Amino acid sequence: MKKVLGILVLSLMLNGCTTFGSEKYEAALNSWVGASADNLVGSWGAPNGVYEKDDGGKILTYIYSRQSTFEGTTSTQTTVDARGHATTTTSTIPGTDITLTCKTTLVVSSAGKITSWSYEGNHCRAN
């Protein structure tokens, strides 16, 4: 039961990162539509990838990734039966390593202006 509860709490934490942070992240990305790609690079730094389109535009890709560790827990429960014998049970939920990622792609027109964006991952959020 405790293991299920731990997994549920972890799932809610991860969903909270993506659900509640996505509106702010999308607003931040929307603020770049129509802006100069040079200004974006000046603010965000060099992209991880650049694809040169046939029409003279570009696709810029930014990738964020890091490991996060959620500590495990240990609980001890002692029960005493009718004859007075004590039994101690220790339960351990191991820690969990999670990779937090965000891949953001911005489309740039041949005039150097950002026209659209997309993102995917479990840790896309505005600073």
List strands and helices in order, with pairings.
Layout: H1 2-30, H2 37-44, E1 49-52, E2 58-70, E3 73-80, E4 86-93, E5 96-108, E6 114-120
- What does the largest sheet look like? 4 strands, antiparallel
What is the number of strand segments?
A: 6
Gross morphology is rod-shaped
Instruction: Quote the distance from N terminus to C terminus.
Output: 37 Å
> Rg to the nearest angstrom?
23 Å
Order of helices and strands: HHEEEEEE
The multimeric state of the shown protein is: single chain
Q: Report the helical percentage.
A: 25-40%
Task: Supply the number of helical segments.
Answer: 2
How many domains, in number, for the residues?
A: 1
Bin the strand percentage. Answer: 35-45%
The chain-level structural class is: alpha+beta
Low-confidence stretches: 1-19
Strand order of the largest sheet: 1-2-5-6
